[in-house]
Amino acid sequence: MKNLNKFLSIAILSVILISCSSSSDDDPSAIPEFDRSAVLVNYADNIIIPRLNNFKSAVEYLKESADAFVNSPDLTSYTELHNSWLEAYINWQYVEMFNIGKAEEIMFFSKSNTYPVNEGRIQENINNQKTDLSNPNDWSCQGFPGLDYMIHGLASSEEEIINQYIQYPANGEYLKVVAHELNKNTDLVINDWSTYRNTFVASVENTATSAFNMLTNDFVYYFEKGLRTNKIGIPSGVFSNNPLSNKVEAYYSSKNGIEDVSRDLIENALNAVNLVFQGKSTNQSPVGPSFKTYLDYIKTNNVSVEDIGSIVVNKIETANQKILSLDKNFINQIDNDNTKMLGTFDALQTIVVNLKTDMLSLFNVAVDYTDADGD
Predict the structure, then answer these.
(1) Within 10 A of 238 (CB to CB), how many other CB atoms are there?
(2) How far is CA 309 from CA 31, 305, 306, 351, in A?
(3) The Cα angle at residue 179 between residues 174 and 183, in degrees rounded to 5
(4) Is residue 226 scored above 80 in pLDDT?
(5) Strands, DSSP E only, in the chain?
(6) Has residue 273 got a pLDDT over 90?
(7) Cβ neighbour number for residue 278 with a 10 Å cutoff
(8) How many alpha carbons fall within 13 Å on the CB side of residue 137?
(9) What are the CA-CA distances from residue 268 to residues 52, 214, 227 (Å)?
(10) Most buried by CB count within 10 Å: which residue of 164, 233, 331, 333?
(11) What is the pLDDT of residue 373?
């Protein structure tokens, strides 16, 4: 009997040891669920809200510079206005992808950066002394592109542009309307985050309306449409029979030789995407929970999955090098050597596939927007 009890004890211990040493690869249910809320907390507290606050400061400076220029239109106040526009526009590249919450509700994305502008409608708005820009037809008459036209597009030189404000005060009134509208909309978005933040970080369920799913889709949509398509694809002629250099971002500043900024804008846009993907608030910041750490977690627990996180980071660097090889003036680049623009588009397109197909599939997040360009 003593020997039988000893045998039974050894057998039971063996079963326990075998069960405890089973690999999680053999039992997916044994893998702890990834904490999606940690990603949203990092994004909200360390990236989205701080970026919006930086943007707000830049927009306030822009509004004040517009008021000062209208009150005293000269070269000094004009230069200050241009500089404030550019600073705010660069800051915009870091928040444009967050089309969620109040930003989505008020169409912040469309009101702030729809280009090319509708020159004819802007002139009608000026002539009619229009102050209400809520009509969707006025999206292309306001925001940064609208300001680009008002600051750089009314004439072909700085002196002539300044004279347009001296001779025609209605131009100044419309400039102020556009700058104040951008500031007002920015306030609405930022103020909403004071209450929306807690709802945002808790909304992690896998549904079409959860904050995690919407933010992930917005991130992919922005990269595909706002960055790849709008900044490179459309002006380089990918979606048309011919290049359309008049559709570059910040067109009037480049066209009239005020300052070449279209490359600067996409450089910052791609850097903004890279930081969000890796979960970093700045280039020097430590990595926090992010889309990449989520992908790394999936890869660690499933050896058959590709290392999509590292692939995307490497491809972003490749695309960045393509961008840096472009002329700072995209009008010149398109008109003189459009093949480099097309090569940049191709580099960005490979990332779209990894984000839209691979990442969303691994996260089990369904695409929530329609695609009309065959990607």
Answers:
(1) 18
(2) 19, 11, 9, 11
(3) 145
(4) yes
(5) none
(6) yes
(7) 19
(8) 8
(9) 15, 23, 11
(10) 333
(11) 56
Kindly tell me the sign of the dihedral angle through the C-alpha atoms of 142, 145, 151, 153: negative
Q: Give 156-169 as a DSSP string.
A: SSHHHHHHHHHH-H
Question: At what angle are helices 308-324 and 338-353 packed, to 10 degrees?
Answer: 170
Report the C-alpha gap between 79 and 69 in whole angstroms: 9
Nearest of 15, 282, 274, 252 to residue 145 by alpha carbon: 252
Sign of the four-CA dihedral 233, 234, 235, 237: positive
Q: pLDDT (tens digit, 9 = 90+) per residue, 110-164?
A: 999 999 999 999 999 999 999 999 999 999 999 999 999 999 999 999 999 999 9
User: What are the chain's domains?
Assistant: 33-363 (1.20.1420.20)
The mean pLDDT value for 269-288 works out to 95
- Which string of b and e fits 185-198 if b means at least 16 CB within 10 Å? bbeebbeebeebbe
Distance CA 119, CA 150 (A): 10
The secondary structure of residue 337, as a DSSP letter, is -
- For residue 375, CA distances in Å to 217, 248, 289, 352 come to 15, 22, 29, 8
Calpha distance 295→358 (Å, rounded):
10
Q: How far apart are CA 47 and CA 53, in angstroms?
A: 10
